[in-house]
Amino acid sequence: MPTRIQICAVAASLFAWASPGLADTNIKIGVLNDRSGIYADLAGEGSVIAARMAVEDFKGESKGIKVEIRSADHQNKPDVGTSIVRSWIDQDGVDVISDVPGSAIALAISDLVREKKRIQLNSGAGTADLTGAKCSPNTVHWTYDTWALAHGTGGAMVKQGGDSWFFISADYAFGHTMERDASAVVKAAGGKVLGSVKHPLGSSDFSSYLLKAQSSGAKVIGLANGGGDLITAVKQASEFGIVQGGQSLAALVAFITDVQALGLNAAQGMVLTEAFYWDRNDESRAWSNRFAKAFGGRMPTQVHAGVYSSIMHYLKAVEAAGTKDASAVMAKMREMPIDDPLFGKGEVRADGRAVHDMYLFRVKAPAKSSGQWDVYETLATIPAAEAFRPLADGGCPLVK
């Protein structure tokens, strides 16, 4: 008959086998985003709520893992963002940087976390360069990117006859890569790019840009911007009567918060590509209703969903790896399949790209909407294998 000491020893060994090295593990996650500017609605406090929901659902304390969430406003400035992250890592021991909308900031943070042997779980930035020539073994790009949006929205518009384009693009990393990727799609389909203009972040007057686009005679005006810039551009385009004059607007990156700000009268018929919609199925509705209760009734954006999903995958990888060491956890994140209620099944590739289905939506007419957040109809599901740039085409040095 085993002694009490032997029973305790067996129990202890079983716990060690189930959670190797995880007893009293403390993990700090910093949610870095725009909390006061043009991207605050699509990211901001909603991303912090999504991060807390992931921690709650993971139930880490029962597994010996304590997770702390903190947040800061990068003010859409790379120097501010890198200063915050450097302080978080050097002084506070933060392990993971989450969200990070703003492509220039995301690229800078990617370099920094690689240097510091930490991890970036990016949900908010768009540039496909994060998993291309500037890929990093320490960065995962989760939700969407410029290649996926260009091929989703741009490809759909060309198929519908929009074979001549003029771009109005934000003059920073995201706008440049979005225009580049969309132009490639248009030209590959036999279309033409008739011109483009660049505008600074946070522009309030798009009249000169819209006049150039209007005078170009292009069938499609591609808006390679987002957040408040996209909203302002669409509203002013309506004032100029651009759509009434026969030209189409292609919102190359748009969010449900943009549709809310524009209203269905202005946004109806707009085609866009997203990775998540709250009303897609029972699981997305259940999670989104929980989110809305914590966020004043507002439904989540795809960025919020990406923050939740990426943190959940990270925490599962920590548990499976038995350590929070960045290289071990990143290896486990690539090894483990993605399977969650928001993004479905997928994988994290060698270049750091999280691969999952994307969706082509059209904004409903007011008469077809049953309520404030009932805004999309699904035109197509873009399978994971087709939704993102092929692994061999990105130029990532991690791909062999």
Can you offer a commentary on this structure?
The chain has 400 residues and is an alpha/beta fold. It contains 14 helices and 15 strands. The chain has two domains: 21-144 and 280-357, Response regulator (Rossmann fold, 3-Layer(aba) Sandwich), CATH 3.40.50; 147-275 and 358-387, Rossmann fold, CATH 3.40.50.2300. Helix content is 42%, strand content 20%. It is globular. Mean pLDDT is 92; it is low at 1-20.
Q: Helices, strands, pairings?
A:
Blueprint: H1 4-18, E1 25-33, H2 44-58, E2 65-73, H3 78-92, E3 96-99, H4 103-116, E4 119-122, E5 139-141, H5 146-159, E6 164-170, H6 173-188, E7 192-199, H7 207-216, E8 220-224, H8 227-239, E9 248-251, H9 256-262, H10 264-267, E10 271-274, H11 282-294, H12 302-321, H13 326-335, E11 338-340, E12 344-348, E13 354-355, E14 358-363, E15 376-382, H14 384-387
Parallel strand pairs: 1-2, 1-3, 3-4, 4-5, 6-7, 6-8, 8-9
Antiparallel strand pairs: 10-14, 11-12, 12-13, 14-15
Helix pairs in contact: 2-12, 3-4, 5-6, 8-9, 12-13
Shape call: globular
Q: Distance between termini? A: 56 Å
If you average the pLDDT, what whole number results?
92
State the share of residues found in helices, binned by percent.
40-55%
CATH class of the largest domain, named Alpha Beta
Relevant CATH superfamily of the largest domain: Response regulator
The total count of strands amounts to 15
